[in-house]
Amino acid sequence: MIVPVDIISVQVNQNNSLFVTTGIDYDSDGAIVGSEITAQYTLVPGDDLTGQPTEVVNIANALWTPAVVEAYKASQPKPE
Fold first, then answer.
1. pTM (2 decimals)?
2. Helix, strand, or coil here: 1?
3. Any idea what DSSP says for residue 77?
4. Nearest of 45, 51, 43, 46 to residue 11 by alpha carbon
5. CA quadruple 44, 48, 54, 58: dihedral, nearest 10
6. 19 vs 24, 59, 70, CA distance in Å?
7. Amino acid 79: pLDDT
8. CB 28, CB 2: distance < 8 Å
9. What is the DSSP letter of 63?
10. Residue 2 and residue 64: Cα distance in Å, rounded?
């Protein structure tokens, strides 16, 4: 029997943004027989985390201290 298993990958970038990949692995008796990426997106320090997977929220909360969020905002170009 093939069982779909949700997967989440989180890459932390140099500026503390998070590159998130979600997908599905198809498992058959302990062997992965296929994979499918369902979404890829980037979150930056200070973004709203509502609706994000628990793993993403936990990583963001650990990394995005108030100092990190302020440093990220200060590094962005000012609108003219």
1. 0.85
2. coil
3. P
4. 43
5. 60
6. 17, 11, 20
7. 79
8. yes
9. H
10. 38
Confidence band for 41, pLDDT divided at 50, 70 and 90: very high
Q: Which of 36, 35, 59, 37 is nearest to 47 (CA)?
A: 59
Q: Which residues contact 1 (CB under 8 A, 6 or more apart)?
A: 28, 29
Identify the three-state secondary structure at position 55: helix
Alpha-carbon Rg of the chain, whole angstroms? 16
pLDDT value for 50: 97
DSSP 76: S
> Which contiguous run of DSSP H or E holds residue 6?
strand 2-12
Task: Please give, one letter per residue, the 3-state secondary structure of 11-47.
Answer: EECCCCCEEEEEEEEEEECCEEEEEEEEEEEEECCCC
pLDDT band at 30 (very low <50, low <70, confident <90, very high): confident
Residue with tokens 């905002």: 73
